Amino acid sequence: MISSTGEQLGIMSARSALEIAARQELDLVKISPKAVPPVCKIMDYGRYRFEQSKREKEMRKNQHIVEIKEVRMSPSIDSGDFNVKLRSAKKFLAEGDRVKVAVRFRGREMAHTEIGADLLKRFAAECSDVANLDKKPNMEGRHMIMFLSPKTAKELNTAAKKAAAQEKSAEK
């Protein structure tokens, strides 16, 4: 038996434990009911539940649910449109979301899937400063798909240090 102050009271009957709890205006809570003898604790159960719900609410507030955002292109995309798609993908990655990049082939474009593969590789190279390649480009029906995930803060710091070191060596 453990009291609310944390002191160990030892083995006692349930009746005497209830009396002690009633005198202190606290609750007798079974911690491990299947143990022999059962382990109980004297505590304010209402306050405990309140603090537990408060902790859970705080954890939910700090939790970020990772979503998968999609960027669609065609193999015949122009450089301006490509840059717009690139900026939106970088924005999604900065928010912490994964990005699914898809190239849709229509009609005779299916004969030149290498154009789509090159486009996706170029897209991944442009995003390499903020993203990791999760899944390499592969065909799924008429779509060629790849996945990018945001780099962690640690990876971004090491990349920034490498870039600064390269700039210093270039200046010399």
Structure description:
This protein is of the alpha+beta class. It is built from five helices and six strands, in the order αββαβαβαββα. The strands form two sheets. A four-stranded mixed beta sheet has the order 3-4-6-5, covered by helices on one side. The longest helix is centred in the last third of the chain and has 19 residues. The mean pLDDT is 86.
Sequence-ordered SSE layout with sheet pairings:
Elements: H1 14-23, E1 27-32, E2 39-43, H2 45-62, E3 68-73, H3 79-94, E4 98-104, H4 113-126, E5 131-140, E6 143-150, H5 153-171
Parallel strand pairs: 3-4
Antiparallel strand pairs: 1-2, 4-6, 5-6
**Cα distance, first to last residue?**
72 Å
Principal-axes shape call: elongated
Unreliable segments of 5+ consecutive residues: none
Number of strands: 6
Structural class: alpha+beta
Order of helices and strands: HEEHEHEHEEH
Q: Over all CA atoms, what is the radius of gyration? A: 30 Å
Mean pLDDT: 86
Note the total helix count: 5
Bin the strand percentage.
15-25%
Oligomer: single chain
Lateral strand order in the biggest sheet = 3-4-6-5
* Major β-sheet annotation: 4 strands, mixed
Q: Roughly what percent helix?
A: 40-55%
Task: Write a short abstract of this structure.
With 172 residues, the protein is an alpha+beta fold. Helix content is 45%, strand content 24%.
List keywords for this structure.
single chain, 172 residues, alpha+beta, four-stranded mixed sheet, two-stranded antiparallel sheet, 5 helices, 6 strands, 45% helix
